[in-house]
Amino acid sequence: MATNQGVNRPPLEGVAPGELRSEEMILNMGPQHPSTHGVLRLVLTLEGETVVDCTPVIGYLHRGIEKILENRTVMAGIRYMDNADYLSPMLNETAYVGAVEQLMGIEPPRRAQYIRLITNELQRIASHLVAIGTYLLDLGAFTPILWTFRDREGILSLFEALGGSRFNVNYMRVGGVLHDFPKGWLQQCEAWCNQFEKNLQELETLITGNEIFEARTQGVGYVDPQQAIAYGLTGPMLRASGVNWDLRVNRPYMAYREIKVNPQVRQEGDCYARYRVRMQEMAESLRLVRVAMDQLPGGPISTRTPIALRPPRGETYFAIESSKGELGIYFISDGSEYPWRAKIRGPSFVNLQILPELLRGHKMSDVVAILGSLDIVLGEVDR
Amino acid sequence: MSGGVVLAEVWWEQLLHGILSWEFLEFVVVFVSIFGFVMTSAVILILAERKVMAWMQDRYGPLHTGPWGLLQTVADVGKLLLKEDIHAGKIDKAIFILAPSVFLAPVIASFAVLPFSPYISLPGAPLATGIVYLIAMSSLDVVGVVMAGWGSNNKYALIGGLRSAAQMISYELPLVLSLVSIVMLTSILSDNGLGTIAIKDIMNFQMAQSWPGKGNPVWDFIFEGFTPWAWFILVQPLLVLIYYTCGLAETNRSPFDLPEAESELVAGYLTEYSGMRWALFYLGEYGNMTIVSAITAMLFLGGWSGPGVAFLTAPGMAIGWQVLGNLLALVYFILKIYLLCGVFIWVRTTLPRLRADQLMQFAWLILIPTTLVNIVLTGALYLVLNALGVSNVVFLVVLGVVNWLMLFGFFWVVSRATTASTRRAVAPAIRARQRLATLAPPSAAPRLPEPERAGVTGAGAGTGR
């Protein structure tokens, strides 16, 4: 399955060919490994501690979500989207219902759009919190993950109050959302925002200036802008390489047409830049949540759509800016209650493809530093 | 003819005499309690670590076993003792089984020369070469780690074991070199000009002979044998830092815990171990922490000195006061050890882990030159000031000031050097990629799209919406 033939390997530093015979070691990292973020398997070819080649092997978490979607009615399928990128279910649902709405030509009410924006941005913060916490855990810092999970807990509690479930929220509906905000929810959210503003500052103080952290991440895993575009990277991966591309800005959808987003871009293109982009995006998302709560319009939260929804014949592609990049749904309908095909364009899957390119020549310790900075979720890679 | 019988009688009586003697009883009691201290200290430290880390990380830590979770480690030890002994099929069995003992034995042996109080210590404590013995013992640990890494027949364990060997050998040097200046100081301070490497003597050098209010019993009680202004930490703060840093590396603690770097190497050389064998490694590691903290306390923080110890244990005091003084000394000493262990825990919660090459660079390019410079500086300063004819006190003050300045310089250098050296260290990777690009024929090189396609303006024709 994982062959290394036909791969150009960089010659070792300082050793002339044929001068010293040494054997390469093939190391199977994963699928059961503490820092492969799920069940990714990396077949590493090591020369000493230097990575010569890497072959990611995926598919250990394949649950056939796209096939399941074909066998569920459109409304019933929303719930299965939660499990694709299980760290940002709200965003997945938004992409799915957005595709259906686009096909049917429905425009959800303004209030529903704002509610979607608030939940999406909260979800983005939650996802980035996990990304940064686990990233620092990969680098050997134990504390940040507990702090970030503490803050994420608040978001999950807010979602629980909203949809009844902390994780698989099943909250979006075609044409709107499931419930309006319950009484007192906005105050709770405001309180959480105030608390999180302080905690984010605390997290910055702990991590950002740390010399060891900078030494581990600066200059490691460099992606230049052309390479990033050539590999189809999106999200923080792309913006950390200096390409200003954010679907919320460049192709605004739903309430993002009214609330302007400041895209966070950095030029360095290394792991440190990716970390900084995520940190800045959290602050930006926090601002967006507050702005949306201030401008929250009244009115209905959903258009009247039947439960047995029959999208018209046709196909469409709808993409949102997920926490990890461009999350697109390619939706084909044959006019029945069931989608004929719903292809998920997962940003994690696309972003993972650059990993072997990045790893070559780095040390083995950098494998986890680079892999963590990609912020992949295996649920979305394997689907 | 009857000589043998007489000899046997004497031997028998001697043995009886020896066993029933006060000295032997004392030895047994001290031995058992110090051995017990090594064992229980690890258990206490693990619990303390979990609780302190929990406190720093905004969570509770162990909570349900016993009151406030205090019995958690006891339960853990019970579990580990009862666990099935599992090992993989193709291990090198002898080496695999022997490794934990080889790792733990030097740690326990190190405690033989630690004086816990003026009276309580194993017979090894008066050893004239105490520091050398301690360093020798701490160097032996690496053998157990390499054995574990090799015997496990596991790639992660092998990498972990070899990393550990390189790391421990590298950090051994600055660790020893940082103690050399202390020995130099003792030779300057002693009357006959001979330095000492006996631990107890070095501790005595940190007890000044005069203090404010000498003669007043209250001040005498507090300050006799307890003169923090004479502790070597004030004269050589940089060395405390370097020694402690090397101690972190020697004990494989964060940020130098590469050999068992969980995120890369699963558990490093511990990967294949389970049950009590695994626990022995942990015991050794936490014992090592205690040793490093104890040496720091003794050489830089005055050891067991504290208010009342020397006053109460002075010759001529009643036996009851002597006992109280020794207990006080024990309390001070263990308190200092655990405070220093607390710094270990604090560091662990704060810092990420270094990379292997950065670790080596830090030892060879920063720590060893710094310690060498410090040795030269100490000697040169003494020669210059001695030629000028100033007293030892002035010399210590000048040395202290210089060393404090060096400490801040060290901070500055380290903060610059870690990031600067990384940029250079990354270069091979990028160079290799560039070379690869030049090696590959141009047709095979992937065609990169034009940068205009980045869509900065957002006007790009896209998905047909």
TrEMBL record, chain A:
GO terms for cellular component: plasma membrane. Gene3D superfamilies: Cytochrome-c3 Hydrogenase, chain B. Keywords: Cell membrane, Membrane, NAD, Quinone, Translocase, Transport, Ubiquinone. Coiled coil: none annotated. It catalyses: a quinone + NADH + 5 H(+)(in) = a quinol + NAD(+) + 4 H(+)(out). Residues 138-305, 310-383 form the NADH-quinone oxidoreductase subunit D domain. NDH-1 is composed of 14 different subunits. Subunits NuoB, C, D, E, F, and G constitute the peripheral sector of the complex. NDH-1 shuttles electrons from NADH, via FMN and iron-sulfur (Fe-S) centers, to quinones in the respiratory chain. The immediate electron acceptor for the enzyme in this species is believed to be ubiquinone. Couples the redox reaction to proton translocation (for every two electrons transferred, four hydrogen ions are translocated across the cytoplasmic membrane), and thus conserves the redox energy in a proton gradient. Belongs to the complex I 49 kDa subunit family. HAMAP family: NDH1_NuoD. This is NADH-quinone oxidoreductase subunit D. It comes from Thermogemmatispora aurantia. The gene is ndhH1.
